[in-house]
Write a structure and sequence with these properties.
The structure holds 2 protein chains of 2 kinds. By secondary structure, chain A is α+β, with helices and mostly antiparallel strands. Chain A contains 10 helices and 10 strands. The relative contact order of chain A is 0.20. A 10-stranded mixed β-sheet of chain A has the order 1-2-3-10-4-9-8-7-6-5, sandwiched between helices. In chain A, strand 8, helix 9 and strand 9 form a beta-alpha-beta unit. Chain B is mainly α. Chain B is built from 4 helices and no strands. In chain B, helix 1 packs antiparallel against helix 2. The chains are: A alpha+beta, B mainly alpha. Chains A and B meet through helix 5 and helix 10 of A and helix 2 and helix 3 of B.
């Protein structure tokens, strides 16, 4: 088990936060020992491997509630062409690295309802504004650490974005992407997954890897349609201090 | 085409488009067509949209412009778009 002091959430969400990463080998006794450590923490997030029923039951007893399953998906980069109709549309959609003023526009867009399935957005203890603020802080942190952010455009209109970083082992990790509000429900949603695939190929990466929330079935279906395969799952439970 | 033949073709087009929608989006036939709208039907998401457009192109033997694929936001809007390709309803 790994207990992380997620101190950055104080700035992002205004609460003290710890993240508990439970491993396959962890036992009920290990979970019981957590109690004093998390007692005075405002917001605790526990990530549990599948089929750990007893541990999940214990976490429920301690006041945790299930909020999402986090699905890890990967795709190799041998053939990056999207299937059928998406391929035809994709040829008219472009992407390029964002400049400073575009990033400011992105922050404005993030304050709209971009991530309605995000666990912070959905949590009645938080909500839309905190979710947006957290994303903006997260992107700023990652840009400082070398991540890149890209515009996605159709006919010179900026329709969405993705944030992308390269991990050590030649794996690319696009960790945030969305169409802008006015371009949702247009059929162009595939581009926020396809364009990172193309960027990963351009960088000669061997694999692209990301996480999807089970609360966002449309985006999961798109990843499958674009060749991603699920390779891990963890259950996410959260607890707020009473 | 004569008037009757045109009416028949229009009815056939309507029937074909209805069938595509019902099959692609698993619509209960009692759901009024006014509610056949992008994101209002649970199966009409990005992947569903692509499947529906592919079926339309196949069955109606047309190739839609990207702008029309993007604008196709409801069943009614779809009929309007198809009429630009000579498919009347």
């Amino acid at each position: 088990m790994n207990v992380i002091d997620a101190f950055w959430e104080k700035r992002n969400l205004g609460v003290s936060c710890k993240e508990i990463i439970i491993s396959e080998g962890d036992t009920l006794e290990d979970i019981k020992l957590l109690k004093p450590e998390i007692e005075n923490i405002d917001y605790v997030v526990a990530k549990v491997p599948p089929a750990k029923f007893e541990i999940i039951a214990k976490l429920h007893e301690m006041g945790f509630v299930f909020i999402e399953a986090s699905l890890g998906v990967t795709r190799d980069l041998k053939n990056v062409e999207p299937p059928g109709l998406m391929n035809r549309m994709n040829k008219e959609i472009t992407y390029e690295k964002m400049l400073g003023h575009d990033i400011d526009k992105l922050y404005v867009e993030l304050n709209k309802n971009l991530f309605e399935t995000d666990r912070i957005f959905l949590d009645p203890n938080f909500g839309k504004d905190q979710a947006a603020h957290r994303y903006i802080c997260w992107i700023k942190d990652e840009l400082n650490k070398g991540a890149d952010v890209f515009n996605i455009s159709y006919k010179h209109n900026k329709i969405g974005f993705f944030v992308f970083k390269e991990l050590d082992n030649n794996v690319c990790y696009p960790f945030l992407a969305s169409l802008y509000d006015e371009y949702k429900s247009t059929g162009m949603g595939f581009s926020v997954i396809q364009k990172p695939i193309e960027e990963a190929k351009r960088r000669n990466c061997k694999l692209i890897s990301t996480y999807i929330s089970s609360n966002n079935m449309p985006i999961f279906k798109l990843h499958v349609a674009l060749g991603f395969k699920p390779d891990k799952i963890s259950y996410v439970l959260v607890k707020h201090k009473q | 085409l004569g008037r009757n033949e045109r009416m028949y073709t229009n009815m056939e087009n309507e029937k074909m488009l209805r069938e595509i929608f019902i099959e692609t989006f698993e619509i209960d036939e009692n759901t009024p067509e006014s509610k056949w709208v992008y994101n209002a039907l649970p199966q009409w998401d990005s992947v569903g949209h692509m499947a529906m457009i592919s079926a339309v192109e196949d069955k109606f033997d047309v190739m839609l412009e990207t702008d029309d694929i993007i604008d196709w936001s409801s069943y009614e809007k779809g009929k309007e778009i198809l009429s630009k390709y000579g498919k009347d309803f």
